[in-house]
Amino acid sequence: MLNYEQQERWSKIVPNWQSPINIITTDTIKEKWNKDLLIFDEEYKFINILNKGNNLQYDGRGVAIIEGRKFDFQQLHFHFPAEHQIDGQVYPMELHFVHQNIIGQITVVALFVELGDFNRELGDFFRDFPAVESEKDPFSAKLSLDGLIGNLDSGVYHYLGSLTTPPLVKNVEWWVIQKAITVSSEQLEGIKKRFQHKNAREIQKVNERKVIYYEN
Amino acid sequence: MLNYEQQERWSKIVPNWQSPINIITTDTIKEKWNKDLLIFDEEYKFINILNKGNNLQYDGRGVAIIEGRKFDFQQLHFHFPAEHQIDGQVYPMELHFVHQNIIGQITVVALFVELGDFNRELGDFFRDFPAVESEKDPFSAKLSLDGLIGNLDSGVYHYLGSLTTPPLVKNVEWWVIQKAITVSSEQLEGIKKRFQHKNAREIQKVNERKVIYYEN
Questions:
Q1: Contact partners, residue B51, CB within 8 Å, separation at least 6
Q2: Rounded to whole angstroms, how far apart are CA atoms B87 and B22?
Q3: Confidence band (pLDDT; 50, 70, 90) for A196?
Q4: Which of A17, B132, B137, B156 could disulfide-link B214, Cβ–Cβ 3.0 to 4.6 Å?
Q5: CB contact under 8 A, A104 and B158
Q6: What domains can you pick out in chain B, each with its CATH number?
Q7: Contact indicator for A37, A69 with CB cutoff of 8 Å
Q8: Domain Alpha-carbonic anhydrase spans what residues (chains A, B) (predicted)?
Q9: Is B102 close to A212, i.e. CB distance below 8 A?
């Protein structure tokens, strides 16, 4: 029986649900995709760029409607190589669009990047970086996440995890877009040369989590 | 700069967002109520009742659509006195309907109880309790949460907190219905006499959290 006179002794157990994970596609729960799940109607407006040492953080503003809930876009950053894996496949790069809603829930939309055509939408994001760590430079750009993703003719993975950098906050709702976008080798090398080392967190255990695969 | 060679040393800071809280109505963020936020179309079917010492847990099955997401109803339990407070007001009792979705998010719908008319919908829930702690008895009942709440002519408070009993799991989405339902004094006394002590957790700090008030 719970002792309500000694509440300070109650145990707190938090499931260790961290990110990134290797998504095993045969283990996913299949659901039908519905375009109302992720609505990016307005362009995100970027206002500055922060040199975080082994990452660049592009701070911005914008609104997404995710599963009917209004989320404020906060920032975009990159990882080399990609952090999430699909059946063990590692892409050269992954983009993280971080959002938060008024009650504090965090949603990250993850986009894989592969080498291919020059990416016009991301053009502005591959130049003019602050040179010194912790330096924040004004940065003006607009980006349509809809335009970047294009028609979602593959699918989306959805699961509950964490931020992949400290403080590794949990209960982050991840939306990992299956179809990779392309950048040119010049674009990728331009941003990669800024980083001496990889900045991808190690793969974390899935444990008892379920990953939904929304099929299109 | 983050050291990706020593990821095991990365700090994990989790905001201490616990429940219950005292909701200060002047601090809430007002939003317009939309009936699609909480959809309880089907009756919940209860299958057994578990004596947890200082609580009774009614296990059941059912589906709720909460902010467009499908949640499975899991169990109902009671607290004496109510755990949440509205501007310091304490109701004699609070009902918690616990739900979880496929990716592991938890939602609790909280209903305050005050003394008044006999509550027909809850009639079955105030009799035939297992006598011994940890005993689980078959229990067959149906309950419409829509019917119990009635027309939502007041409003709903919504915030991010925790379970109020160990393991005090965080990131629980709370929906606290403003308008109390009534039970008769016979109903309340019948269930209260089973418990020797109060089973309400202490009020927790709101910290930097925002509480939404959905006005009807």
A1: B129, B130, B131, B132, B133, B134, B135, B136
A2: 6
A3: low
A4: B156
A5: no
A6: 14-215 (3.10.200.10)
A7: no
A8: 1-216
A9: yes
